[in-house]
Amino acid sequence: MLKNIREKIAGANWQDIAASMHCNGYAVLSGLLSHAQCDTLKDRYDDTDAYRKTVVMARHRFGLGEYKYFDYPLPELIRTIRTDLYPYLVPIANTWSHRLGLDTEYPEVHGEFLRQCRENGQEQATALILKYGPGGFNTLHQDLYGTVYFPIQIVLFLNEPGLDYTGGEFVMTQQLPRAQSKAMVLSPKRGDVLIFTTRFMPRKGTRGFYRAHMKHGVSEVREGERHTLGIIFHDAVS
Q1: CATH number assigned to the domain comprising residue 158
Q2: pLDDT tens for each residue of 58-107
Q3: Long-range contacts of 4-12 (CB under 8 A, 24+ apart)
Q4: Residue 35: what are its φ and ψ, rounded to 5°?
Q5: Range of the domain at 137
Q6: How much is the pTM?
Q7: In the chain, how many domains are there?
């Protein structure tokens, strides 16, 4: 099972993914998870031993729904995806740093990046599973968790839109200087991975590159149940 995941990651069209990230701030890697793998992740939702924290969104005015942070050690499937995807995203992240004139250079190996997180007091796992029912939504936000962060993250879709639920689109906004925000509405399929920017992306202007600030959220679920798995490459402050 894990060999198949690794082969799909290695066999993805990373040239096209990079081009989409540079142009749009997001890209889709289709069919990384099988339906059985999606079901396994959903079925573990009530396994309390797997998680370090549960967040009821309404209590914090984050939206309406619930999410749970996994604890270390992460399940092998999640750890494999996180570790194997990271090196393919580093060239995109470093290109963005270079274009924006930032000093940050991301290491090629994820373990080395996690060491940088630990040195800054960020040691808690940030992988999470989210669950929405009818009326559920997630307000626009960014997933930073500390001063050290990776500028790209992913979300895996565990239900089929239009079949398991309606509504619940993934929403991104892009704020350009002295302009109104641009909204992007996406509906990846079950088993797909959406790769997207955590905080900002570079945009080309007449005087070079500038930051376009990005946020993401989830529109209201009209019917059914929606589960996703979020994988963030940096850890959280303890």
Answers
A1: 2.60.120.620
A2: 999 999 999 999 999 999 999 999 999 999 999 999 999 999 999 999 99
A3: 5/32, 5/33, 5/77, 5/80, 5/81, 5/84, 6/80, 6/84, 8/32, 9/81, 9/84, 9/85, 9/88, 10/84, 12/88
A4: -60, -35
A5: 2-237
A6: 0.96
A7: 1
